[in-house]
């Protein structure tokens, strides 16, 4: 799995699939026991305790499903955001806290206590707190798991805006497939392995990637107009992910359609001319 700097990615999977374990390792909360986990060119597997402390302090921010882990209920919103900066003796704490609350749409609620705020507002305070150390990576574990659909959309809007305006790399773990469908790249994990990816692109992006754009339109103006119209139209493509040894996990619905069960033997045929691999049930 590779996540580029500045991406907004959702990770989905059933309970026990390994998605939260991955997030905990990315956040420096759990240490990998094998393989490699490279962030900003550094392998977390080789970190010592001091490296992990600096990594958590300077590189990552974390948003939990249970925002009680981020919030102190008897403090106001701005005091909650100031708290981690106070512990690190940062200067201009109040100014920075107000800036972060404004970034998550809570500029009018800065002096409200947590018990005066809705669940969605509390979660946005938690997001502001996760940004207090100015992280380059923001990790969110089921950030919309305890809110309604409208609030879920508002929280996703905050993440998208932070990603767009601040260039923060954001990784969201969620079981909410409706929410995941609103994110351009979704990675599915099954049995501890990446099984597939769903990548959403506008028709404009597809047209830009195609070298036929100049052939389809007579003038640059026509091409530009077509691109502008295509920016509003999106298509999704699901890709199966090969691991480093060449193994892949086929979508469950494909196996069921062919009557193939786990552990069954299958036959694979290569058609080089068509650039296809055909898989069928062995007789």
From TrEMBL:
UniProt GO MF annotations: ATP binding; ATP hydrolysis activity; DNA binding; transmembrane transporter activity
Keywords: ATP-binding, DNA-binding, Nucleotide-binding, Transport
Domain annotation SpoVT-AbrB: ranges: 237-283
A Pfam family the protein falls into: ABC_tran
CDD domains in alphabetical order: ABC_MJ0796_LolCDE_FtsE (cd03255)
Ranges where the ABC transporter domain occurs: 1-216
SUPFAM superfamilies: P-loop containing nucleoside triphosphate hydrolases (SSF52540)
Domain of life of the organism encoding this protein: Bacteria
Gene Ontology CC terms: plasma membrane
Gene3D superfamilies to which the protein is assigned, alphabetical: 2.10.260.10, P-loop containing nucleotide triphosphate hydrolases (3.40.50.300)
UniProt protein name: ATP-binding cassette domain-containing protein
Annotated organism of origin: Candidatus Faeciplasma gallinarum
């Amino acid at each position: 799995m590779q996540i580029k700097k500045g991406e907004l990615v959702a990770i989905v999977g059933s309970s026990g699939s390994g998605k939260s374990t991955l997030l905990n390792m990315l956040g420096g909360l759990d240490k990998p026991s094998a393989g490699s986990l490279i962030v900003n060119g550094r392998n977390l597997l080789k970190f010592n305790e001091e490296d992990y402390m600096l990594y958590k302090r300077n590189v990552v921010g974390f948003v939990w499903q249970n925002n009680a882990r981020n919030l102190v209920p008897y403090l106001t919103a701005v005091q909650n955001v100031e708290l981690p900066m106070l512990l690190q003796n940062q200067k201009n704490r109040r100014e920075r806290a107000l800036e972060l609350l404004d970034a998550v749409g809570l500029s009018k609620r800065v002096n409200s206590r947590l018990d005066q705020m809705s669940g969605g507002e509390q979660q946005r305070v938690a997001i502001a707190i996760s940004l207090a150390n100015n992280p380059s990576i923001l990790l969110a574990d089921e950030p919309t798991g305890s809110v309604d659909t409208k609030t879920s959309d508002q929280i996703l809007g905050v993440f998208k805006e932070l990603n767009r305006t601040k260039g923060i790399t954001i990784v969201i773990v969620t079981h909410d497939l409706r929410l995941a469908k609103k994110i351009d790249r979704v990675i599915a994990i099954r049995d501890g392995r990446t099984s597939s990816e769903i990548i959403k692109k506008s028709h404009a992006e597809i047209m830009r990637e195609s070298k036929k754009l100049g052939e389809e339109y007579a003038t640059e103006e026509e091409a530009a107009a077509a691109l502008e119209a295509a920016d509003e139209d999106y298509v999704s493509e699901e890709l199966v992910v090969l691991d480093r040894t060449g193994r892949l996990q086929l979508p469950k619905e494909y196996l069921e359609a062919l009557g193939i069960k786990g552990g069954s033997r299958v036959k694979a045929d290569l058609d080089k001319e068509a650039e296809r691999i055909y898989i069928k049930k062995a007789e």
